[in-house]
Design goal:
Largest sheet: 6 strands, parallel
CATH architecture of the largest domain: 3-Layer(aba) Sandwich
CATH topology of the largest domain: Rossmann fold
Distance between the termini: 43 Å
Strand order of the largest sheet: 2-1-3-4-5-6
Bound molecules: S-adenosyl-L-homocysteine, iron/sulfur cluster, FE3-S4 cluster
CATH superfamily of the largest domain: Methylthiotransferase, N-terminal domain
Number of helices: 13
Strand content: 15-25%
């Protein structure tokens, strides 16, 4: 694949920030604080992108609201991974007809993965005249410029040119929480799994420079963030495009060297190139959670091949064995697609048997969704939606049973959790996560949010653990 790594020059971002100041003068001229709403669909990468959109909007003087009738600017950041996500976006954007009627000056922008597909951009152009601005993931860095054009020009603005993508540094960010933070380490995907739209809409794999990642991690830790997730579609190929001899395990080591009381996580790992070095690095690190999200997608070698996943069931199971040999307490989660075109009963049974063998702590299961332009979309698929639903239900039942059993094993144990929020419920008013990412319900002082605590697990069910706080702020593990 010929692809040249491209970086957006810092002067370009400075120019965007200058436009932010211009918009500030325009939208605050009447002395009122304008409001914006950013609505996010899809994965953590999109959440991270929305934090940048909010960063720009904050520089433009906007406050934030969740009420679309109050908003002067609405940005809908979309996901294209399954049809269901797209239908929701169309439904919700359609409903904005009412808000635009009530507030004719309102600017409606639709961005993200979905609009990077030409047939979707076309559909918005034709059927959703209330949308003023449409831009794909590759244009996010110049959102201020595009928004200014939508505000001042007479025409609707569409910026969805095909692109391999670039690496951009220095966009202001307004993070959602104060405990957990996303840290993108790379963008795009080169894997072209045959069912997946991501490589078409997110461009080629490109890594941020290690010093940029480390500097951002250092800032987050200094600001008091306690849970940092390194993000990429396939973090295991980090650094390949940089040619610096720094791979993902090296990057973990560099971040882990930063002192402080925090947990380090990452997602997603593609099983084809998770290495022994990675497992060893995780086991030896001071801050890495002993958790891997290792999407298997299917337990059938025929289906894995048709999916272009580049590993076999046997290789996958070997990876799991190896990872567990370094981390006996490893929490393992996965993604599975049910009903890939042509998946037979026996092939589905292979998935069930793999799940029984691995015993995942939790699974994300999806019914295959046909994506325009992907190779799987033209594969023969004789099975009905009802067949697939039956398989899906069986898999869910198995997954729930195993999660319930695994959760029961926690009962009576005392372990460290990070208290990450309030639930609004009386009995268990706090929520927390174990290092492995399991949800724990607790009762305690709201001031404990953002702190580590030692808890004893007293009860559990399929979805969560329940515990009692022994003491809080007992410091770093290891
Ligand atoms: N880069 C990540 C996954 C990103 S998409 C990885 O490779 O693991 C998240 C999950 O959505 C995938 O793991 C897959 O299980 C599911 N998915 C992707 N495309 C899909 C499709 N067309 N239909 C159903 N599920 C899909
Ligand atoms: Fe999609 Fe596969 Fe890339 Fe994941 S690795 S984003 S599933 S193409
Ligand atoms: Fe969806 Fe785009 Fe993420 S398609 S899953 S928001 S990369």
């Amino acid at each position: 694949m010929s692809y040249e790594r491209k970086e957006i020059a810092p002067e370009e971002i400075a120019r965007q920030e200058e436009i932010c100041r211009r918009i500030f003068d325009r939208v605050t001229a009447d002395g009122q604080r304008p409001l914006a709403m950013v609505d996010t669909y899809g994965c953590q990468q999109n959440e991270a992108d929305s934090e940048k959109l909010r960063g720009y909007l904050a520089e433009m003087g906007y406050g934030f609201t969740r009420d679309e009738f109050q908003a002067d600017v609405i940005v809908v950041n979309t996901c294209a991974v399954r049809e269901h996500a797209e239908m929701r976006v169309f439904g919700n954007v359609g409903a904005l007809n009412h808000t635009k009627k009530a507030r004719p000056h309102q600017i409606i922008a639709v961005c993200g993965c979905m609009v990077q597909q030409p047939h979707i951009a076309e559909k918005i152009k034709k059927s959703y005249p209330i949308v003023d601005l449409v831009f794909g993931p590759h244009e996010l860095w110049r959102f201020p410029e595009l928004l200014e054009r939508a505000m001042t020009g007479k025409k609707r603005v569409f910026a969805t040119e095909k692109s391999d993508g670039a690496v951009v540094e220095g966009i202001p960010q307004r993070r959602d929480g104060s405990v957990k933070a996303w840290l993108s380490i790379m963008y795009g995907c080169n894997n072209f799994c045959t069912y997946c739209i991501v490589p078409y809409v997110r461009g080629r794999e490109r890594s941020r420079r290690p010093e940029e990642v480390v500097a951002e991690a250092r800032e987050l830790i200094a600001a008091g963030y306690k849970d940092i997730t390194l993000l990429g579609q396939n973090v295991n190929s980090y650094g390949k495009d940089l040619g610096l001899g720094v791979d993902f395990a090296d990057l973990i080591r560099m971040v882990d060297a930063i002192d402080g009381d925090y947990v380090l996580r990452f997602m997603t790992s593609h099983p084809k190139d998770a290495t022994e070095k990675l497992f060893r690095t995780m086991a030896e690190s001071r801050h890495c959670a002993h958790h891997i999200h290792l999407p298997v997608q299917s337990g059938s070698n025929r289906v894995l091949k048709a999916m272009n996943r580049s590993y076999t069931r046997e290789k996958y199971l070997e990876q799991v064995r190896l990872a567990r040999s370094y981390m006996p307490d490893l929490v393992l989660t996965t993604d599975i697609i049910v009903g890939f075109p042509g998946e037979t009963e026996e092939e589905f049974e292979d998935t069930l048997s793999l799940v029984e063998e691995v015993r995942y702590d939790a699974m994300f299961t999806f019914i295959y969704s046909k994506r325009v332009g992907t190779p799987a979309a033209s594969m023969p698929d004789p099975y009905t939606r009802a067949d697939k639903q039956k398989h899906f239900d069986r898999l869910t039942e198995l997954s729930n049973r195993i999660s319930g059993e695994k959760h029961r094993e926690y009962e009576g144990r005392t372990l460290r959790v990070l208290i990450d929020g309030e639930t609004g419920r009386e009995e268990y008013n706090l929520s927390a996560r174990t290092d492995g990412g399991r949800l724990v319900h607790l009762k305690g002082e709201p001031s404990l949010v953002g702190q580590f605590a030692e808890v004893t697990i007293t009860a559990s069910n399929t979805w969560a653990l329940y515990g009692e706080i022994r003491n809080s702020e007992f410091g770093v593990r290891n």
